[in-house]
Design a protein that fits this description.
This protein is an alpha/beta fold and 142 residues long. The protein has helices spanning 12-27, 38-46, 58-68, 86-95, 104-109, 125-134; strands at residues 3-7, 32-36, 75-76, 83-84, 99-102, 137-139. The longest helix has 16 residues, at 12-27.
Length: 142
């Protein structure tokens, strides 16, 4: 594997950046995986992401949603509720061939069991160790 991204933050902006970078790297011929852990795993499971102050509020959400079209990023809602959709991006990234792996520690801590968010694959600690060992580059932190 060429690149392993680690997505741990529950901020929608972080998820959008990491997942789109993984999708783009895969499209450019890299072998890519994303390890989803901590707050990001909880946010994907609940569908509720936080947004930094500078990127929140109706005018900013609308501007980001309008700009998302040119970047092939999914948008949810209509009118004033229109916003970038990190959860839908997971499906788009998985469909592009990026492996999305749920952290086994945080899957257990969050009580997700067999109910992982769609698009994420279950893993045990050996599988995660193997991903980390075989990655040419690791982007992010646990």
């Amino acid at each position: 594997m060429d690149l392993l991204f680690i997505l741990r933050d529950a901020e929608g902006s972080s998820a959008i950046s990491t997942l789109s970078a993984a999708r783009d790297a895969q499209a450019n011929g890299q072998d890519v995986a994303v390890l989803v852990t901590q707050g990001a795993l909880a946010a994907l499971a609940s569908g509720s992401f936080e947004w930094p102050r500078a990127l929140s509020g109706p005018p900013m959400r609308m501007a980001l949603a309008n700009a998302a079209k040119s970047l092939d990023l999914p948008v949810a809602g209509r009118g004033a509720a229109k916003a970038l959709d990190p959860k839908a991006l997971v499906g788009q990234v998985a469909d592009a061939g990026v492996r999305l792996v749920a952290c086994p520690t945080w899957s257990s801590l969050l009580g997700l069991g067999d109910s992982l968010p769609q698009g994420l694959e279950a893993a045990d600690s050996d599988k995660v160790s193997d991903l980390l060992a075989k990655a040419g580059k690791v982007v992010g932190t646990l």
